[in-house]
């Protein structure tokens, strides 16, 4: 799953990969923050940075994009 994501986004950081995997598990911001040991606001910032890296338009769901990128061929 992560390999597919790396192919689409070679510049993804380890922390962003972890975020993507937790998103795949359908965890919410609070659960992701607790798991990664970071602030809930940091999760929001990470999602925004991923949106920019992926060049996603404002209306597109970053989490849904990540899920599709990791599970679809």
What is the rounded Rg? 11 Å
Judged by helices, strands and strand pairing, the structural class is: mainly alpha
What is the residue-mean pLDDT, rounded to a whole number?
92
Cα separation of the termini: 10 Å
Please bin the fraction of helical residues: 55-70%
Q: SSE order, as H and E? A: HHHHH
- Count of individual beta strands: 0
Stretches where pLDDT is under 50 for at least 5 consecutive residues are none
DSSP strand content: under 5%
Tally of separate helices: 5
Shape: globular
What can you see in these coordinates?
This protein is mainly α and 73 residues long. Helices cover 70% and strands 0% of the residues. The chain contains 5 helices and no strands. The chain has helices spanning 2-8, 14-24, 29-36, 40-54, 62-71. The N and C termini lie close together (10 Å). The model has no long low-confidence stretch (mean pLDDT 92).
């Amino acid at each position: 799953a992560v390999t597919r994501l790396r192919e689409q986004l070679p510049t993804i950081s380890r922390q962003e990969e972890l975020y993507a995997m937790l998103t795949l598990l359908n965890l919410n911001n609070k659960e992701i923050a607790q798991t990664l040991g970071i602030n809930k606001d940091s999760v929001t910032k990470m999602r925004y940075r991923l949106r920019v890296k992926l060049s996603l338009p404002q209306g597109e769901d970053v989490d849904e994009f990540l899920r599709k990128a990791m599970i679809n061929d």
